[in-house]
Write a structure and sequence with these properties.
With 198 residues, the chain is of the alpha/beta class. The chain has 6 helices and 11 strands. Pfam families: DJ-1_PfpI.
Length: 198
């Protein structure tokens, strides 16, 4: 049933897998995905970082690929999209300082549209003030931000994801199969509801 148009908001040092894998998977499944970054245009790239779990107290970080954006943030309108994807990595910590990014994130929640966020993507959700009373997973170090924003932190396995209505979240890239499966189920349910209403 893919027909949904999805906006992905990302930025420099976004997590490599958490950007590349959902972008390519959703395209392969027939969805339209526009990847944007404030201050950059279609054809520009963002640097990615590879976060890995190698037995240390937190993840390790290495330089990843360059990810090519296929749309221009300043030209897109959140209202034209059916869903939002927020990858993790370092990008959310600075993207949350951008008022236009915050406004875009709030639009998807105000409109009840599907939203998928993973790992540090919860930092952007917390800054947008959309987590009050919502269950949200994230990288464990982001738990205080989820809770300070009024969210209910989902303490789940690194390979699991959790859905709370239109919001699907996961702790990190090892959860991709569960996270993307749950997100696509929410996307398809939203598309079916829209078709039925029309």
């Amino acid at each position: 049933m893919p027909a949904s148009k999805i906006l992905m908001i990302t930025g420099d040092f976004t997590e490599d897998y958490e950007t590349m894998v959902p972008f390519q998977t959703l395209l392969a499944c027939g969805y339209t995905v526009d990847a944007v970054c404030p201050g950059k245009k279609a054809g520009d790239t963002v640097a990615t970082a590879i976060h890995d779990f190698e037995g240390d107290q937190t993840y390790s970080e290495k330089r990843g690929h360059n990810f090519t954006l296929n749309a221009t943030f300043e030209s897109v309108r959140a209202e034209d999209y059916d869903a939002l994807v927020i990858p993790g990595g370092r990008a959310p910590e600075y993207l949350r300082l951008n008022a236009d990014v915050i406004k875009s994130v709030r639009h998807f929640f105000d409109a009840g549209k599907p939203v998928a966020a993973i790992c540090h993507g919860a930092q952007l959700l917390a800054a947008a003030g959309v987590l009050k009373g919502r269950t949200c997973s994230a990288y464990p170090a982001c738990r205080p931000e989820v809770e300070l924003a009024g969210g209910i932190y989902a303490d789940i396995s690194i390979t699991d994801a959790v859905a709370d209505g239109n919001l699907v979240t996961a702790p990190a890239w090892p959860a991709h199969p569960s996270w993307l499966r749950q997100f696509m189920a929410v996307l398809d349910a939203a598309a079916l509801l829209e078709t039925t209403a029309a």
